[in-house]
Design a protein that fits this description.
alpha+beta; Pnp Oxidase, Chain A; 4 helices; 19% helix
Length: 179
Amino acid sequence: MTVRSRGCADHGGRAMVRPMERSCRSWGEFAAAEPEMAEAGRRLFTQFGPGLAFLATVGSDLRPRLHPITIALAAEELYAFITPGPKLDDLRRGGAYALHAFLPDEVEEEFMIAGYAVRGEPRERDAALAAYHVASVPDDHVLMRFVLDRALHAAYRHRGDWPPTYRRWSAASTSPVEA
């Protein structure tokens, strides 16, 4: 079975795989296009202090993996310093990811983004460190920038409410879709 990886065409060729014709957007571009949805995502990612998320990747055996990680939301970008291991190997091999915010304690609410991870540039390191509120990280931690091709927000009126109100955004479209 052959699996073709896709990347984002307009993010400088720094993807871990050859970019294809898919377009992706930075966190800042997403926030400019859909400020309320981005604010809900920021709130959910940072509800416990530092940015926390579950990172979904695809292993070399094509099986999904799920990893809790710390993320940094800088003004325009979403970063993570990734330690050597399976999640970094997955991102280097294919780049595809999904990030899901932790669920809040008070009410059910969900936020998920997906796209492709690209290796951060050395010039981006200081902004990422500032967003993490740290002066340094170990040298083996690799800076990854996450670009988005889609987002999903699910809002519930109360715990157990069904169905939620879904809001979807795609980099290929100019406006979110409510369902």
